[in-house]
Amino acid sequence: MAGRQDVLGQMWKEYSFSDSRYLTSDPFVLCMETVTAICWGPLSFIVAFLIMIEHPLRHPLQAMVSLGQIYGDVLYYATSMFDHYHKGLTYFRPEAYYFWCYYIFMNLIWIVIPGSRLMSPPL
Fold this sequence. Notes:
By secondary structure, this protein is mostly helical. It is built from 4 helices and no strands. The chain has helices at residues 7-15, 27-52, 58-87, 96-119. The model has no long low-confidence stretch (mean pLDDT 89).
């Protein structure tokens, strides 16, 4: 991705300012993003369709996707913080914008929204 000049490549590089593991082929990030692309992404489209047709299977599958997103995000934060505090490695730039807007806020969305879906009663 580092050598790509298209829009997706530029967005990937911009996000990597908040977490340089995205440009270094970090094993955890590669595994996490692969699971997201292969499992959670397609399953999210299936859940959206099931919600649209009001199929009863939408509830357990939505819970599964939500838990998967939360679990991945908690591991994402945990591995970064572990490396920071125990190995002295910092993956984000020192500017507050990249830390708070990209690293914290953009990833916190993937905890708050699935968490709210898990906490809400089925319709």
